[in-house]
Design a protein that fits this description.
11% helix, 4 strands, 4-stranded antiparallel sheet, mainly beta
């Protein structure tokens, strides 16, 4: 994925249905985004890179 995974998915037709942020044991915040498209649902979990700039997609789950 690119440095803008949510924007990329929205361009592909996914809509944001929900969002939450949690403190991941003091290391970094994790951001969870729920997306939906045509009856499909996907959750992606993002966090800031520990070293350097940018973000990392921790997990991507189709539900």
């Amino acid at each position: 994925m690119s440095d803008t995974p949510v924007s990329d998915l929205v361009r592909q037709g996914w809509e944001i249905a929900g969002y939450s942020a949690t403190d991941a044991s003091g290391a970094a915040y994790q951001h969870s985004v729920l997306l939906h498209r045509n009856g499909q649902h996907r959750i992606i979990v993002l966090r800031k890179k520990l070293l350097g700039d940018g973000i990392v997609v921790d997990s991507e789950l189709d539900v």
